[in-house]
Design a protein that fits this description.
Radius of gyration: 16 Å
Strand order of the largest sheet: 3-2-1-4-6-5-7
Order of helices and strands: EHEHEHEHHEHEHHEHH
Strand content: 15-25%
Number of strands: 7
Distance between the termini: 40 Å
Length: 220
C-alpha cells in the first residue's frame, strides 16, 4: 500500500479561525492514520504545540512566501512518502476533505493517473462571489486544456512524477496561488495523466460567513 502524506502550510500571528480549522484538519487526518507535514511561517506557540502533539511533522518556513513554503511542504512530504508514495497537498482549513482522501488516491494506487484534481459536487457552501468566479475560471481551463477540472479547488493529489513538476516551478507568475495552478498545466503539457475525481466537499460554514460580502475577497 502506498504511503499517503498530507502537506500543508500555516501562517497567522494570532490563533484565528483558519488555525482553529487547521487543528481540526490535522486531528482528523492523524486519527485516520495519515502522516501530516506542516510548514509554518510564524504562528503562535500555542498552535504549534497543539499540532505537534497530534503527531504532525512540523517545519519552520525556510524561505518566506506562499510559493516557497508550499514547495517546502511538498518536498518534505515527498521524502516521507517515498518513491511509491502519494502526496496530498491541501489548504489547512479544509478538514471535510480529509474524508474524501481514500477516493481520490485510488487512481494513483491503480496507476491510472499521475495527478488527481478533486472536483466539488457543488459550490453552494461558498460565498456567492467565489462561486461565480470559480465557475468561469474552470470554464477557461476547459477551453485551454480540453479537460473538465475543478482547477480552482486547492487540493492536489500526486505521485512522484507530478510532484517533481510541482517542485520545479520557478514562481514566474508571482509565486502565490500560481504555485499550485501552473504546475497542473505543466503536468498536462508533459503528458502526465491528470484526472478529476468528484468529491463530497462542504466548505466550512464559519469561513464562508467570514468571507461572504467581503470586497477584498471579491477582488482577490
Amino acid at each position: 500500500m502506498s504511503k499517503v502524506v498530507i502537506a500543508t502550510t500555516t501562517l497567522s500571528p494570532t490563533f484565528d479561525l483558519r488555525l482553529k480549522l487547521a487543528v481540526k484538519t490535522v486531528e482528523i487526518a492523524c486519527s485516520k492514520g495519515y502522516s501530516v507535514v506542516i510548514v509554518d511561517g510564524g504562528s503562535p506557540v500555542e498552535f504549534r504545540d497543539i499540532v505537534r502533539k497530534t503527531g504532525a511533522v512540523f517545519f519552520e518556513e525556510s524561505i518566506k512566501g506562499m510559493g516557497p513554503s508550499r514547495r517546502q511542504a511538498k518536498l518534505e512530504a515527498g521524502k516521507l512518502a517515498g518513491v511509491d508514495g502519494i502526496v496530498v497537498w491541501m489548504e489547512p482549513e479544509k478538514h471535510t476533505f480529509v474524508n474524501e482522501i481514500p477516493k481520490v488516491i485510488m487512481p494513483l494506487i491503480n496507476k491510472s493517473a499521475d495527478l488527481v484534481i478533486p472536483a466539488r459536487k457543488s459550490l453552494h457552501t461558498y460565498p456567492k462571489e467565489q462561486q461565480h468566479a470559480e465557475e468561469i475560471g474552470n470554464l477557461a481551463v476547459y477551453y485551454l486544456t480540453g479537460k473538465k477540472l475543478d482547477f480552482w479547488f486547492g487540493p492536489r493529489v500526486m505521485n512522484q512524477r507530478a510532484l517533481d513538476i510541482f517542485l520545479k516551478y520557478s514562481g514566474r507568475y508571482g509565486d502565490k496561488w500560481d504555485s499550485i495552478q501552473i504546475p497542473v498545466l505543466e503536468c498536462i503539457g508533459a503528458g502526465l495523466n491528470v484526472v478529476g475525481i468528484e468529491v463530497d466537499y462542504s466548505h466550512p460554514t464559519e469561513q464562508t460567513k467570514a468571507e461572504e460580502g467581503n470586497i477584498v475577497m471579491l477582488i482577490k
